[in-house]
Amino acid sequence: MKRRFPALIAALWWGSLTTIGFLVVPLLFANLPTPAMAGGMAAKLFAAQTWVSVACGLLLLLLSTSKQSQALAEWAQFAIIFIVLGLLLALLSQFAVAPRIVARENLRLWHSVGSAMYLVQWLCAGVVLWTLVPAPRSPD
Q1: CA-to-CA distance for 128 and 10, rounded, in angstroms?
Q2: Contacts of 90 (CB under 8 A, 6+ apart)
């Protein structure tokens, strides 16, 4: 169980980013009456997603050290860079980019920056998940 818990957290992180960013938000814009309504709801969903990302990232960082030696766990030696980068991107998106989008300040630029940051965060979470999930064994 101890070995599987980090993989479960990484799956939650990557899966929630995937669901919100690539399914739910596009559906909002396709189905709500106005882009303003969809944008307002999307902003709330992305804010909630930030806190899911922060919780998952912090849990992964806590689980990355061995209690006995304070050394990095084997999986964390590679993944920690992507965990920290994903956390930073989530926080920067929420506190630096999102307020500019909500204020409609240079909307095209800040929406592009926010989208790129979300995509990179999604890739970081994917790398962490890929690192934690072992390859299936071949039936010899």
Answers
A1: 6
A2: 49, 50, 53, 54, 57, 121
Which is it for the CA torsion 89, 72, 11, 52, positive or negative?
negative
Please give the Cα distance from 125 to 26 (Å, whole number). 20
Please state whether 104 falls in left (phi above 0), alpha (psi between -120 and 50) or beta: left
DSSP designation for 68: T
How far is the C-alpha of 104 from the C-alpha of 67, rounded, in Å?
A: 47
Predicted TM-score of the model (pTM): 0.90
User: What was the pLDDT predicted at 72?
Assistant: 64
From CA 72, how far away is CA 66, in angstroms rounded? 6
Identity of residue 99:
P
Give the whole-angstrom CA distance, residue 18 versus residue 126: 10
* First and final C-alpha spacing in the chain: 26
The pair of three-digit structure tokens given for residue 132, joined into one six-digit string: 């934690």
Cα–Cα distance measured from residue 70 to residue 114, given in angstroms and rounded to the nearest whole number: 35
pLDDT in tens, 71-106: 567 778 889 999 999 999 999 999 999 999 999 899
